Amino acid sequence: MKNILTVLGIVLTIAAVVAAPLKDKDQIVLISTSANKELSQIISKKLDVPLSGESKRHNDGEVNVNIGHVMNREVYIICPTCHTKTETGEVQIDQNLMELYLMACAARRGDAKQVTLIVPYFGYARQDRKTKVGVTISSADVAKMLEVAGINRIVMVDVHSGQTQGFFSPNVPVINLHASLVFAEYIKKQGYQDIVVVSPDAGGVERAEKLGQLLADSNIDYSLATLIKKRSAPGVVESATLIGNVRDKTAIIIDDICDTGGTLVKAAAVLKANGAKRVIVCVTHAVFSGDAYNTINNAKDIDEMIVTDTIPIMQNSATKIKILSVSDMLVEAIQHLHNSEPISIMFEAEREVARL
Ligand code: R5P
Fold first, then answer.
1. Under a CB-based contact definition with an 8 Å cutoff, are residues 77 and 115 in contact?
2. What is the pTM of this model?
3. DSSP code, position 112
4. Are 330 and 336 in contact (CB under 8 A)?
5. What residue's CA is closest to ligand 1, atom 1?
6. Does 244 contact ligand 1 (Cβ within 6 A)?
């Protein structure tokens, strides 16, 4: 009897997780900026909604956007505000941001019913407070700029700091999704024993605990550890002190961003020096400034790195960097929003499935 109830529970829960099929698909206008066309194409294919809109650059670098007819329709703009490196060149963060701003303005001026930004990586989020005289709170200023464009809501993945949600007015809901769901699925399949989930700095302990909880929901034991990181200058990690035990364990470092790679290289070295058997790194946003990709690839203390596709990455063939997609998560978010279903269902139900 208990088994029948369990199976019934699983069926009901899965039914709650999967959003209902898209009704009135032609109401949706799916637009991509130039920032991450690959991810946009995957989302478009999975939703079975074509990508529309185009942008050109004038000789002087000005961007010119055209999103077509959007009157009374729901517009979703896929637009990470990252620095984009592709085979054909580089696009700076501010260029991606301006293109996004103008597309959102075009949607509002075109009398769209709703304008939703899908921002898998929200750049500027690290500048979230006044640290000295003369600086601004860039994250808040970017939020205001997007609001001026008339957006209705915004979906992000692992925004660097929670207060960014409060930088938008209450009438612009911010939905922050977590890539830890994607990482947990991957880790579960590897069958690791003696896992310690490690935060590379004090600020990331909550994120590490969230990943640990997802593993525990699938009956995988874990312990927690953290490093206390001190920087001597931006991008330079002076020291990292370990709190916790990693000896003979598989250490899984989780972080939101890899920028120069300095944090992870230092953290992995400290973990190996303290007896960790292997070091796996899970990072949502592969910012990879400068030569960071090679820095990670050549780091002897990092055994494997898992990143997501919130930012496009140019892979080389001999790499220890594996890319997992957040597309399913974003597709599901769009389905829920379009069907006017509360998005919190996504988190709660996924946790239920993980627990069963
Ligand atoms: C800091 O709070 C972030 O979570 C990352 O740890 C940081 O941005 C990584 O930077 P880098 O790769 O340059 O050390």
1. yes
2. 0.91
3. B
4. no
5. 257
6. no
Any atom of ligand 1 within 6 Å of the Cβ of 120: no
Residue 27 burial (CB < 10 Å; 0-12/13-18/19+)?
Answer: middle
Bridge partners of residue 231, in order along the sequence: 237
Q: Kindly give the number of the ligand 1 atom that is closest to the alpha carbon of 204.
A: 4
pLDDT in tens, the chain (356 residues): 444 444 444 444 444 445 667 888 999 999 999 999 999 999 999 999 999 999 999 999 999 999 999 999 999 999 999 999 988 889 999 999 999 999 999 999 999 999 999 999 999 999 999 999 999 999 999 999 999 999 999 999 999 988 999 999 999 999 999 999 999 999 999 999 999 999 999 999 999 999 999 999 999 999 999 999 998 887 788 999 999 999 999 999 999 999 999 999 999 999 999 999 999 999 999 999 999 999 999 999 999 999 999 999 998 877 999 999 999 999 999 999 999 888 776 665 455 544 44
- Residue (of 224, 176, 171) closest to 198 by Cα position: 224
Query: Given the structure tokens 């990709």, which residue do they identify?
Result: 293
Q: Is 249 part of the annotated catalytic residue set?
A: no
Does the C-beta of 80 come closer than 6 Å to ligand 1?
no
Return d(Cα 197, Cα 205) in angstroms, integer: 9
The single residue of 113, 229, 230, 266 carrying the catalytic annotation is 229
Residues 348 and 114: their CA atoms lie apart, in Å, by 26
**Ligand 1: which of 129, 238, 254, 255 to mutate, most ligand atoms within 8 Å of CB?**
255
One DSSP character per residue, 211-228 reads HHHHHHHTT--EEEEEEE
259 in contact with ligand 1, CB cutoff 6 A: yes
C-alpha distances in Å from residue 351, one per residue of 19, 122, 341: 15, 25, 17
**Pair 208, 196: CB distance under 8 Å:** no
Cβ–ligand 1 distance for 295 under 6 Å, the answer no
Ligand 1 geometric centre to CA of 257 (Å): 5
